[in-house]
Structures are given as structure tokens and as C-alpha cells.
Amino acid sequence: MFVLEPLLTDGIAQLSYLVADTSNGHAAVIDPRTDVEVYETLARKHGVSITHIFETHIHADFVSGSRSLADRVGTAKIYVSDVRADYQFSAEPIRDGQEFDFGAFRLTARHTPGHTPEHMSFELCESKHSAMPWAVFTGDSLFVGSAGRPDLLGEAETEGLAKDLYKSLYDYYLKLEDYVTVYPGHGAGSACGADIGDRMSSTIGYERRTNQFLRFPDFEAFRRFVVDDAPPAPWHYPMLKKVNAAGPEIMDRLPSVPALPPSEFRKVSRESGVTILDTRSMLAFGGGHVPGAINIGARPEMSAWVGQMFDLDQRLLLVVDDDSDVEAVQRLIVRTGHSRFAGYLAGGMKAWEVSGLPLQKLEQVSVEEVHQDQSTASHFSLIDVRSPSEWESGHLPGAEHHFIGDMRDRITGLDKSKSYATYCASGYRASIASSLMQSRGFKQVANIPGSYGAWTAAGYEVEHEKGSKS
């Protein structure tokens, strides 16, 4: 029996796949994530052995699990592109057109550069109909409603990669039959492509008719759309490129995280290179937290934001809702390369409180209060920390735009003696920003829970980039 199991990694919106033939017991995994035991569990469920691990390209947004999976199962080889191969670990190079026979099905490698120079896609066909692929694993070259961005390797590479991407899309994908199913490497929410669709799969025919990346008659128009209108590249992507090219360290288990009583936690927090990461909700954090902590709530998107905000050599001190949450929080963090943990606060904030140690608060102001404040004497200066495209689509009247991705190294243009209130779409990113500002000496900073979503739901007026209001 043929098996195809897609696995969505929430937060980074990454898609990996297990494909298998249960009649001969062989299976392949395409683009495995860091916590690889999920693939071993699936293989056991179907009674198959993972023999092949395929990498579509050197990933930028998560740590590859290929080496860890190969080590864990002990029966698999890793296969990577032989084109401009910057891989620095042991793996089998594959060429364009190379076929892999798994009994009932066959995978064929197709060189589809553009997102990266080495990028490979994999056609899937029945062995008895080897000239008729019915599906293609597109990695980060073609997405549902979108395509991979060619600008992640720097300005010097962008023009050439944009040309390669155009050729891959128009000379390869658009020449496939309409019925071919598209299995991409990412879903909605990934920054590896602009405005990726919500569905986890599509067809060539549907994309041919609806995907705006596939509707340009010439390269120049395509280049302007893909390069000039690209959203900001996340800061941590180049770092993860280097990690994945060198070969991520094999992770046979999650790193140890010592349980620290409050006094020891406070002592360690003062050490150089240590960051306090409070993973509770924004309202819990606002009510009281360890001074200097940064708030990134334990939701799936935490993976991307920890990667975006902290260097890989930072040692993280965790504050969690409950001690039993530590492992789940770790799993989110290690996916974007962070594996250095200084410990966690044993007993949580309750233990900190009863120890009589200092508490810091972060004011939470509702959209109603902000609206009333704007109607009278302005108390808060509003800071919009959303992406440039979100800002341009509409913002709170009188707000300044300071994209959160640009605040990690320094916060420029803001007076620490003034009062600020931060907002995003829902309050999650705003709480990251306001806690970061507070940790850097801003004395009067607040967060707006609900943020832009709550503002528009209340029917309040919004302003657009050129000053018009609605």
C-alpha cells in the first residue's frame, strides 16, 4: 500500500513528508524538522523503514533534522543536490533527473533553482507509469498561491536567482500537466514566500489559473514584482543557512534545562550572555514578571520570534506557566537553532513572588482607553511594530512605524523619557516589542492587547499611509 503523510510544523509553517510503500517496507522523508521522533513514530505506525532522507535545499527558517533522523533510525542515507553544493556534512549528492525506486512509486529529482542555487524538487509517480508524475514536492520553489523568494542570499545573488526562479516556474512547473498535485515546503505564515495560501496542497492547473507569480509574460515584470515588493527578510535566516550547510548537531534528545530556585535564577540572570525569556501570556506577563524579561508567549509562532530576536549564542533562562510546560516550550525554541538553556524558574512566578524578590509590571491598555486618550490630551505615543505591508494597509491615527524586526539590535528614534504604547495585529508581537523596550530602559511603555484587530473590531477610525482616513 502507498502511504503519503504530510506533517505541518506550526509556527514556522513548515511542511515535511513521509512517503512509503508498505508492501516492501521502504520509506522516504522529505525535509525533516528538528524534533525527528515524529517520523520514527509514523514509520512504526505503517510498519516501514526509513531508508532515504531528501533535502530540497539548504533551509533558512528552521534547523534541518536530516542528520538527527539518520542517526536515530540507523537505516537511512541523506540525499542532497549536487549543484553548487555547499553542504559540509556527509551526504549522497543527487543530480537532475536521478530516479529513486521505492517499489510501488518512484521519486525523480528535478533541479529547480531560484529560491536557492541548489534547490531540488521531487516528482512522484507510480512505478508502472514512470513517465507520468502525478505529484511534485516543490520545496521552497513553488507554494500555494506564491513562490519562493530569491533574495535571501544577499543582493549579489538576487538578480541571478530571480532569473533562475522565473525559468523554474515557467519552463518546468508550467509544463507539467494540470492534474499534478503540488506539495510545497511551507504553508501560510512562512516568510520564505509572500502571501502563501492557506491550503497545504494544490494542483498545477489551479496554480496556473490563480497564482500571481505564474502570470507574468516577461521576466522584467516578474522581477519587479518578486524583488522590489519582497517583505523584509527575517534577521536569523542567514544564521540558519550557515547552520544547515555545516550540518546541524545531532539531537538525540532535548538539551538539559536545570530547574533553578528563585535565588539561583536571579543569580544566573545577571551573568553575561543570558536572556530571560518569559513564555507566559501577555496579560500574565503584564501583571508581574522578573525585571528585564522579554515576553514571547508559548504559542507556535514562538519558534520564529525566538529565532528573530536572539543570537544563537544567547543562553536562555525560561519562565513558564507551569513546570510541566518546559519540554513543549523547548521543542518550539530548538526548531530555529537555539539550544543553549541556562535553566528555568522552578515553581514559576508564584515561587518568585513568595520569595520576596522584585517584580516589574508592564501596563496593558485597551483600545478603548487608547481611543479615549486620543480624543483628549494625548498620553501615549503609539508605536506600530507590524511589517511595512501591514502598516501601509492601515494603522492607528498618529502612530509611528517601527518594525519589530529592526528593534532587536537597537531602538532608534525614540525618546526614553516619553510614554509609548505598542500595537501589532493581535498584541503578541507588541508584547515582544514593549517588553524589549522596557528591558532597555524605557520607563513608560505599555502594550495594547488585541491591538489593530481590536481597534478595527470596535469600529474606530484608521489612517492610511498618505493620510487618508477610513
UniProtKB/TrEMBL annotation:
UniProt GO molecular function: hydrolase activity
Keywords: Hydrolase, Metal-binding
All residue ranges annotated as the Rhodanese domain in the record: 270-361, 376-464
Cross-referenced SUPFAM superfamilies: Metallo-hydrolase/oxidoreductase (SSF56281), Rhodanese/Cell cycle control phosphatase (SSF52821)
PROSITE patterns: RHODANESE_1, RHODANESE_3
Keyword Metal-binding in annotation: yes
Residues forming coiled coils: none
CDD domains: POD-like_MBL-fold, RHOD
This protein's name: Hydroxyacylglutathione hydrolase
